[in-house]
Amino acid sequence: MPQSFTGRLQHLVFLLVLFVAALHSAWAAKPEQLPALNIDVRETSISGLSSGAFMSVQFQVVYSSIVKGAGIVAGGPYFCSQGSPLRATTQCSCTLDPAHDLCSVSSNSTNVSTLVSDTRQFAAQGLIDDPANLSRQRVLIVSGEKDETVPPQVAAQLSDYYGQLAVRASNRSEVRLSKAAHTMPTVNYGKDCGVAESPYLGKCHYDTAKAILEWVYGPLKKPQQGQALGRFMQFDQRGYLPKDRFTWTTGMDNTGWAYIPEACERGEACRLHVVLHGCRQGQSYLPLRPVSGGGLYYGTTFVRNAGYNRWAESNRIVVLYPQAVSIPGINPNGCWDWWGYTGADFPTKDGVQLKAIRAMVDRITSGRP
């Protein structure tokens, strides 16, 4: 096929994708504003898968003064990439090429001691909260023995990172699932546990959402059959971004999602858990093969089926699902920024994505009497 024709064809395909995305946005219901609820901001926790896991670590370190705990599924230490896409894709994960021929993940490929030193230096400069706050957090680390994207050695180095920053061993728990590939383990939703493909939710007979929430908050009340259901809402993310930044420069979608239990809607005291999807799991991502029941886009497959909402309802936990979006040529898979595509300040309080998520947290926790 002549190169000129190929180029024109690729351009037309790209324009078609933009057109479909515009229609999708136009047809979507008008997003709401996040409510101000009765939540103590110090009862905030966070979890995520893959890029969402790396981003969750960033959030819990950068804003350690408000985070109660975290659940990290297929993730690694804070500032693992050190701002290098090559390091991110070869030493912190194996994502540079499908064959993984260039992957150099090993038992010390992330260089934990350097990352700990960087963390302390950032804190001394006032770029992040005091890492001493991490000592009181409770952290659950989940990895898959068959994960070839973020191998379990990376999770082991994350645990070492926490240990060097004085997170007590009694506050850390590591779960390694023998049959899990690169996926969000669920009880019975998604692909087979050992398959790493869309929707990246795997039937592993393991309730990751419950395990994380219970590790952070203590014993949970079981969901009751016929229990009242809360409100699943789509909210406007644009107001949480700097006025001079927008979707194509921040990697943040126009809207996000939240699940609000009925009791929290009524004004009862509640808690907040932030959940960050992985790459290729954002609502606006266009998978090569449509997700079952999801239509053309990935849609709400993750936010509805990752397993958090039913536990949230019976335990007065609001669940916030911020959404990242693809940027052609820079972030085509709609990953969260843990290597620097939004700027060199990505792992600090000046990072545009971290600031946006923190602003969402501040808004939703602002209704406490």
TrEMBL record:
Keywords recorded for this protein, A-Z: Hydrolase
Keyword Nucleotidyltransferase: no
GO molecular function, one term: poly(3-hydroxybutyrate) depolymerase activity
Tagged with keyword DNA-binding: no
UniProt cross-references to InterPro entries, sorted A to Z: AB_hydrolase_fold
Protein name in the entry: Poly (3-hydroxybutyrate) depolymerase
Chain's gene name: phaZ
PANTHER family: POLYHYDROXYBUTYRATE DEPOLYMERASE (PTHR42972:SF8), TOL-PAL SYSTEM PROTEIN TOLB (PTHR42972)
EC numbers for this chain: 3.1.1.75
SUPFAM superfamilies attached to this UniProt entry: alpha/beta-Hydrolases
